[in-house]
From TrEMBL:
<feature type="region of interest" description="Disordered">
    <location>
        <begin position="40"/>
        <end position="59"/>
    </location>
</feature>
<dbReference type="Pfam" id="PF01497">
    <property type="entry name" value="Peripla_BP_2"/>
</dbReference>
<feature type="domain" description="Fe/B12 periplasmic-binding">
    <location>
        <begin position="77"/>
        <end position="361"/>
    </location>
</feature>
<dbReference type="InterPro" id="IPR002491">
    <property type="entry name" value="ABC_transptr_periplasmic_BD"/>
</dbReference>
<protein>
    <submittedName>
        <fullName>ABC transporter substrate-binding protein</fullName>
    </submittedName>
</protein>
<comment type="similarity">
    <text>Belongs to the bacterial solute-binding protein 8 family.</text>
</comment>
<dbReference type="InterPro" id="IPR050902">
    <property type="entry name" value="ABC_Transporter_SBP"/>
</dbReference>
């Protein structure tokens, strides 16, 4: 069980006490930064491929979303502000370098449970600047740039003034990245940059290489599709809220997934990640098949795959679509449709599902 009042290893009082006494926050952060070389409660020290070793003074420098981040040595008290960054750090074996996590929308997968159990939860939802500073971070990681705002964790400029580097996933910073790089390649660059920062380059390189191979394997489907036919169209149904569908637009990962497997996102003309549309508009697009993102673990009304199926079969127009009538519907974990270390799994499910539906020979 997570203990949010765990004593800071370099401070004389519990971090929970900091949250009750905001005046101590600035002092605590200064002390934490001044003593960042001390070991964390989980063991401290640098790592190589996820295993603790002796202290390392290896300097590193990376660029994240247009900002150069420099490190005198590997971070010892990293905070991940969302599920995406949390799972990436756990996949890289960095749990004993983590001083906190926040804003998890679903359960942590079984493969990360043991490592995650020792990471303090600084906020069950989106972390505030006060909650972040109470954790005494020396590095902050987020999958989304909008977590770094004045009314949330604080801006990257504010954190830089406190000597706390802030890393944003390259996937959420498209205008700052080289033209032509795909969302998956941007995701893999995150692994490699974090590997550089933490001194786990070999492990990060293996992770990126393995996922590149998974993307290439999924792409073999596109080459084996029926010749002489247009690409099949797909609607990605992410959520149903107040009876209205939310689907994948052109700027989200599903459009890239579609391209890889030889399909086309039916809402590629909408310049948003997950726009709200009408059921009538879904029917108008008349997709060849539908991908349902199952968000059962999130637990909101309309999140489960069964609720989404019921919404479609109960709609007087959508229920008549061939994709619904003939059950040309695939189910994948909803969280994997957003860029994360688990997204290649959903991509593999999509490629396999298209084969089962007859779109791949």
């Amino acid at each position: 069980m997570h203990d949010n009042t765990r004593t800071h290893p370099c401070l004389p009082f519990p971090t929970g006490d900091l949250m009750r006494h905001p005046a101590r926050l600035g002092i605590a952060l200064t002390l934490a930064l001044a003593t960042s070389g001390c070991s964390t409660a989980a063991g401290g020290g640098s790592q190589k491929d996820g295993k603790s070793s002796g202290p390392s003074a290896a300097a590193a420098s990376v660029t994240s979303c247009g900002r150069k981040l420099s490190f005198a040595g590997p971070p010892e008290r990293a905070v991940a502000l969302d599920q995406t960054s949390t799972e990436t750090l756990l996949e890289l074996g960095l749990q004993d370098r983590m001083a906190g996590t926040a804003n998890l929308k679903t359960k942590i997968p079984a493969q990360y449970e043991a490592a995650y159990a020792g990471v303090p939860v600084i906020a069950p939802k989106i972390a505030t600047g006060e909650q972040l500073r109470a954790a005494g971070p020396d590095f902050v990681v987020a999958g989304s740039a909008d977590l770094f705002t004045k009314d949330r964790a604080g801006t990257r400029e504010e954190l830089a003034a406190l000597k706390v580097p802030a890393f944003v996933s390259a996937v959420d910073c498209p205008r700052r990245n080289p033209a032509g790089r795909t969302p998956f390649e941007l995701l893999f660059s995150d692994y490699e940059n974090l590997g550089e920062v933490f001194g786990v380059r070999e492990r990060a390189g293996k992770l990126a290489a393995g996922q590149r191979a998974a993307v290439a394997k999924a792409g073999e489907s596109a080459a084996k599709g029926p010749r002489g036919k247009e690409r099949p169209t797909v609607v990605y149904l992410y959520s149903v809220f107040n009876g209205m569908p939310y689907v994948a637009g052109s700027t989200g990962l599903p459009s890239e997934m579609s391209r890889i497997v030889g399909a086309k996102n039916a809402f590629d003309d909408v310049n948003e990640d997950w726009p709200e549309v009408s059921w009538e508009e879904v029917a108008k697009r008349n997709p060849d098949f539908i991908v349902i993102g199952d968000l059962s673990e999130r637990g909101r009304p309309g999140d489960s795959a069964s609720e989404k199926r019921a919404a479609m079969t109960g709609h007087p127009v959508v229920s008549k679509l061939a994709a619904v009538r003939d059950n040309k519907i695939l189910e994948v974990p909803g969280t994997e449709l957003d860029p994360s270390v688990r997204s290649v799994h959903a991509l593999g499910m999509l490629a396999a599902g298209m084969k089962d539906l007859g779109y791949v020979r």
